[in-house]
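Consider a concrete sample entry:
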Amino acid sequence: MYKSKIEDLSIFGGRKTFDLPLHVGRPNIVDRQQFLQHINTILDTKWLTNNGPYVQNFEHKISDITGVKHAIAICNGTVALEIAIRALELTGEVIVPSFTFVATAHALQWQEITPVFCDINLDNFTIDTQQIEKLITPRTSGIIGVNLWGRNCHTAALSELAEKYNLKLLYDSAHSFGCTNEGTMVGNFGDAEIFSFHATKMVNTLEGGAIVTNNDELAEKIRLMRNFGFADEDKVIYIGTNGKMNEISAAMGLCSLDNIETIINANKQNYSLYTDGLSDIPGIKICEYTSESTYPYITLYIDHEQSVLTRNQLVDILQHDNILARRYFYPGCHNMEPYRSYFPHSGLLLKNTENLIHQTLCLPTGTSISKNEIEETCHLIKFIINNAKEIKKKLEYKNT
């Protein structure tokens, strides 16, 4: 339903553009019958967990797609981070961007390792390799790079720094499964990489994750740690936890992998529709992708010097009209507890991060959104921006 006057906006009492909410990260469920057949097979065999055939097949397919020697399926991405951090024997301090989901920092702090927050660069919003060297101390044991929205870190510079200072290098690649970096599949960088297969991700296992590595010794250690340290039925040889993925999650993952080209093509088509629909709008820019990405997110950058409305105001208006835009990653890990209390002045070293947390938002994409829904979303955003001055005045009056 296209808006023709300001009063049509739901925030001012008008009818919502969409009767049902459009979510960011709505799951890609591409072959329901295939998934249900897998569930029936799992129930018939009565092998529900403990490294069953579906988990093993899922791991093999991840390795085949990424070209990485070892893929270890984990119950979720956060536990995958925690296990990888422990397997790499990280201690003391680890340098990490604040502009990431809080799980990246929590996985360190949970193990009494201090996350040292580094600023991001402005070309692709990943960790600023020019700033890392200033943060290295005798207590630094590693670096975690975060591949963001399917756009990848400057891996060559990070590898050089890690080698120069004898640091472990881990990648949180929750957003980048299936992407390449200068021709090499993501998963092949650093000592190890983490994938998330949460329901909101392009490939999903309901809940799930994986650790991938080309290091044989590290992979063996991770497999032990994932299953309480069991080397065989009754023999525990290492300290571990329960990080196993179950069979039904793996079955969902196999359905996603079997249909990954369909998902990527939908993402790419959606990106083109949004790009066409939101071009030449003052103060708004879509974060760009190259052909090496899977186009998993639609991220808008709001330039507050050109835009009349703030990012938060735009998000509020869209959400009232059932377009549930998300503020990725607001307010930044350094502004969350316990880090805000531990490091109250860290924002002084995070200039780009401090700006960006107020300027980005993500819009719905994936296989569950239609062309018409994208076109209506673009039309609404254009209408809001074209009438921004009047809308701002009405919002100020509404809030007095």
